[in-house]
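Team,

Forwarding the record for the chain on the shared tracking sheet. I've put the sequence and predicted structure together so nobody has to dig through attachments.
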Amino acid sequence: MTGVRPLHLAAELAPAPPDGGSRTVAGTVALARLAEDAGLDFLTHDDSFSRPGLDALAVLARIAPETRSVGLVPTVTTTHTEPFHVQAAVATLDWVSRGRAGWRIAVSPGAAEARLFGRRPAPPTAALWQEAGETAEVSRRLWDSWEDDAEIRDVATGRFVDRRKLHHVDFEGAAFSVKGPSIVPRPPQGNPVVVVDATRPAARETAARHADVALIRASSPEEAAGLRAELHRSARAHGRDPGLLRVLLTLTADLDAHPGGPAALAGLAADWHGGGAVDGLHFVPAVPGRDLPRFAAEVAGALRDRGLFRTAYEGTTLRDRLGLPRPASQYAPKGADA
């Protein structure tokens, strides 16, 4: 694959079968391992305040010790939650997974969900995405509030941390303020990977400004290429390098009912990626226990046979998988190693 723009593959590890039943921990771990054996970049796990089920962060924290290489990206709703607690939980997942964590930012616009918390009425969607962006920003500052070598762990002297290398973030947002520093040391990746579903226009500004991976839905390669170009332009306008923003097509499919099945899906991924419309595919299985193993074995396998997908993992972190650098702490002295 030398000299070829890498193709990225991810899949949704859905929280429960469509019949509403529960999946065993062993079954969920087995699906994650199948995805890992196929070399997938990462697995997402959806979550919402509007339905019962296990917390996505907790599920992936349980899966982390049972896997070695695949990235783990829970959906985290930033509405009605405390940003300080959100960042600490995501940082903890990065530590538990040894640098394989990300988080997919979501918002909660529903009045029924707002009533569950009783803190405030649901703000307009645009305001929720602005708040989500501020949560992403303060999370990044809190992850950086510990310099990489702030931990001492000197048993003889009883010193755990060098306080000179802890920093207050002093963040003031529209809906919250955070002083910091974090209660969790800087994560292995520096900043865990930020994923945003940018299909809806209201989320695109947040994606362009904060996301490492943007997910889109599109019915044609031309539509996808237009969305990717829009995100890149907006990222550049925010002073970011658009070459460091990965754009993946989210596609829900029943591989038993899909015209041509896995072979057709592999062809679509190859064509859209080769034409520059997307950087890869985020697959949402219609029936996880059936479709995810077929995607891992047949779609990823077909792309590997074409020389478009990895034969083995390189590096150790999710950022390594995505070709993203590990950012330096914004509070570390200039010239310090990341």
